[in-house]
Amino acid sequence: MRYSVCMNAIGIIGGVGPMAGADAAQKIFENTNAATDQEHIDLYLTSTPRSIGDRTKFLLEGGSNPAEGLYKNALQLIGLGASTLIVPCNTAHAPPIFDPLRKKLRDSHPDITLLHMIEETAKHIAKRFPEPTTIGLLATKGTHALKTYPNALLAYPHITLIEPDRESRERVHDAIYNQRYGIKARAPVSREALTILIEEAYKLHKQGAEALILGCTELPLALTRETISLPLIDPTVVLARSAILHTEPAKLKDEVE
Amino acid sequence: MRYSVCMNAIGIIGGVGPMAGADAAQKIFENTNAATDQEHIDLYLTSTPRSIGDRTKFLLEGGSNPAEGLYKNALQLIGLGASTLIVPCNTAHAPPIFDPLRKKLRDSHPDITLLHMIEETAKHIAKRFPEPTTIGLLATKGTHALKTYPNALLAYPHITLIEPDRESRERVHDAIYNQRYGIKARAPVSREALTILIEEAYKLHKQGAEALILGCTELPLALTRETISLPLIDPTVVLARSAILHTEPAKLKDEVE
Prior knowledge:
Two copies of one chain form a homodimer.
Chain A: E1 9-13, H1 18-30, E2 42-47, H2 49-52, H3 55-61, H4 67-80, E3 84-86, H5 95-108, E4 113-114, H6 117-128, E5 133-138, H7 141-146, H8 148-153, E6 159-162, H9 166-177, H10 191-206, E7 211-214, E8 232-233, H11 235-247
Parallel strand pairs in A: 1-2, 1-3, 3-4, 5-6, 5-7, 7-8
């Protein structure tokens, strides 16, 4: 058995939601060049949703900031040896949550890399679509309200972002959160949730969207190459690949579109 | 947000292999009764395959015992708060690896539950098939050689286990380990690996197997309800459900066969 000289590790702050954390781990493994178990990068996942709380609820109604729980998870992961941290949750990247987390972490652990899923995704989109392109966004109400994607894409003026109208945002949010048929409440994904999401995806396509950002980590569980024929941008895959690039760049697999 | 009185947590010693660790996390979430993120059980996953080493290689050729690395992972998970530990790897349950791990853990942490995937699976099979039944086993060469399943099933004489002949064991092992098309080397699963496994599954069925144990955690990535029409027993699902039962029994979903 050979050990690499530098044993960096990836830390996933999961639980937001739980399935998205496991999904991020899987996408990291899938995007790693490894023919044996031992060629994989070390990885740790925490999934303590009770200690973090609901991100959208905080953004819309206030209360205790999920940044506190996220920071505690970050410390646990750093304690285990993680050098690159990711938070596979779009809503957690809203500035009222992510900014205090980033600041606390920079102050206490300036050597640790905390990747920003939305900024990584904006960079990826700008590179993947070098010509003027219209992109659609499907997300939770919290992510729309906080303008995390429009703000991150401001740096790339050749990308035009379109978002669903108010009624459609409610429907997408419902497909994620409904306690009977929402993606968070049911695995595998229910027919009700899938139908809503496919309808809303094609509405954005009719309005000119050439590709869609799956702007909530639960959405790739429903919208895949098998269920919809529009080009999809999965920020969890973008984040997984960035995590590999920042930890052991030689192990990053070639991109498969 | 409400906290349960007792904050037990599940710890997954992953990395053996990495995808199996993420798969176990997913199966725990899928088998948890939870309509919101916050209703999920706390969970931690370590995935440090370089520090554990290949289990089959140790069983067949000797060298340093993977039990050492597994124990270090166990201590990390206990340090985070895990009270129930699982190792989603069949080969790691061979007595030369699992027995020293179990002993060390009992000595240092008698309050921690370390579930035994094979014993849990044998118990599950005996309950699911109350009449005399023949079951087939697909596994790595290490698992066959160490007789982990036949030994665990000795307690249930109404279950007859059949295993592939030597040539077929080589083929199944190759479908898992081949560095070009094996499941460990490629995601998604290659056509070559899937073809071998379907052929070997039906060979066991012809010999009388009414259901098949997917006795290596990589196998459920290839053999699913979609790819094969034989009844399958996935020890990772059995283990995931046992972990929930031992941690927060009220959260265990009803079984879906």
